[in-house]
Amino acid sequence: MINAAPSGGKVADKIRIGRIKARNVVSGGHGNITDRSEVFIVRAEQSRLQAEALQQLREFIQSLPAHAHEIDAESAQKAAKSIETALSKRRIRRDKIEKGFNAVLAAIGGITTLANAIAAVQATVGRLIG
């Protein structure tokens, strides 16, 4: 069920501007439209992906000591912790996460096991933040 409350705005079922197509569009001041079932499903999926990414990242952090003699473990752990902090926030900032991943990759060098582990985290985060 879609609940439209335009409050002075305009409601359109479909709209096309150039090559951009949209459905269920509200414009104007304080306009909103929600499909409560879809909002719930999206939030549940986001929460699941966020928890999955955090779990993968924690496993990655736990694996770092085994490779301490091959990598800059301190930098890798610091960067991974920054990603963990960014992922734990309600509003996830892509720039902070990308910066963290770049720092992790620089710290782990070419260690395949760690690179594969962080790639799995990146894939999950990619699904989370699109």
Can you summarize this structure?
The chain is an alpha+beta fold and 130 residues long. It is 59% helix and 18% strand.
Structure description:
The chain has 130 residues and is α+β, with helices and mostly antiparallel strands. It folds into two domains: 2-36, no CATH class; 45-129. Helices cover 59% and strands 18% of the residues. The protein is built from four helices and four strands; from the N terminus they run E-E-E-E-H-H-H-H. It has helices spanning 36-63, 73-88, 94-108, 112-129, and strands at residues 2-5, 10-17, 20-27, 32-35. The protein has a two-stranded antiparallel ribbon. Strands 2-3 form a two-stranded antiparallel ribbon. A hairpin with a 2-residue loop joins strand 2 and strand 3. Helix 1 (36-63) runs antiparallel to helix 2, helix 1 (36-63) runs antiparallel to helix 4 (112-129) and helix 2 (73-88) runs antiparallel to helix 3. The radius of gyration is 20 Å and the shape is elongated.
